[in-house]
Design brief:
Layout (H helix, E strand, L loop, with lengths): L1 H21 L15 E11 L3 E13 L4 E14 L6 E18 L2 E14 L3 E15 L4 E11 L3 E12 L4 E10 L2 E11 L1
InterPro entries: Beta-barrel_OMP
Organism: Alloalcanivorax profundimaris
Protein name: Outer membrane protein beta-barrel domain-containing protein
């Protein structure tokens, strides 16, 4: 667990340092032009220590209410094996809904925070309500590449601190593809997704 925490901390520190180093200081920026209204569809792998290792299909979306606040939500379906002696198959679904806030810090750099309510329902641990909060940075690294990363805390079946990172490649004005990772005290998550901005 200590090794995983150190790796996660190093990834978070490296991501944030990279984002800060590439940002150009501008105090009068009102909007960096990032899209906070989109729909996306993706595939993830969730690997829990002494828990389920599952393949996940997820649909997600966000909708900007104004220049700072956006709504978000998603629905995931997962299937895999419970990683323990006498392991069983596990399948289930997870839905979340929440709100986000963003504000520009510098040109091409936004501060972003989100808070979600989560409902997880599976055939092994039954069902549980929980929540997750995230805070981090979103950076336009090049004309076609965005990087983001930060810290998270989630409490569904138990509480976990962690870090997350994401890369987003702009294919056209409307279409993006991306990859994401997340590391918490007891899980490793990795995924790929496609996004349509509207």
């Amino acid at each position: 667990m200590l090794k995983k925490t150190l790796i996660a901390s190093a990834i978070a520190a490296g991501t944030l340092a990279s984002l800060g180093a590439h940002a150009q200081s501008t105090t009068s920026v009102r909007d960096n032009g990032f899209s906070y209204s989109y729909g996306q569809f993706g595939y993830d792998q969730w690997d829990y220590d002494n828990g389920p290792d599952v393949d996940v299909i997820t649909g997600e979306g966000a909708f900007a209410l104004d220049e700072h606040v956006f709504l978000r939500g998603g629905l995931s379906f997962y299937d895999g094996d419970y990683d323990s002696p006498g392991s069983d198959d596990v399948d289930g679904n997870r839905a979340y809904a929440g709100v986000g806030f963003h504000t520009p810090l510098q040109r091409n750099l936004d501060l972003v925070g989100t808070a979600d309510v989560i409902r997880d329902d599976n055939d092994f641990d039954d069902s549980e309500w929980g929540y997750a909060v995230r805070g981090g940075l979103r950076h336009r690294t090049t004309e076609s590449l965005e990087l983001s990363g930060g810290a998270l805390y989630e409490d569904i079946y138990d509480g976990n601190f962690g870090v997350y990172g994401q890369g987003l490649v702009h294919l056209t004005r409307a279409w993006d593809v991306g990859a994401r990772v997340g590391f918490t005290d007891d899980s490793d998550n990795i995924g790929l997704f496609g996004r349509y901005n509207f």
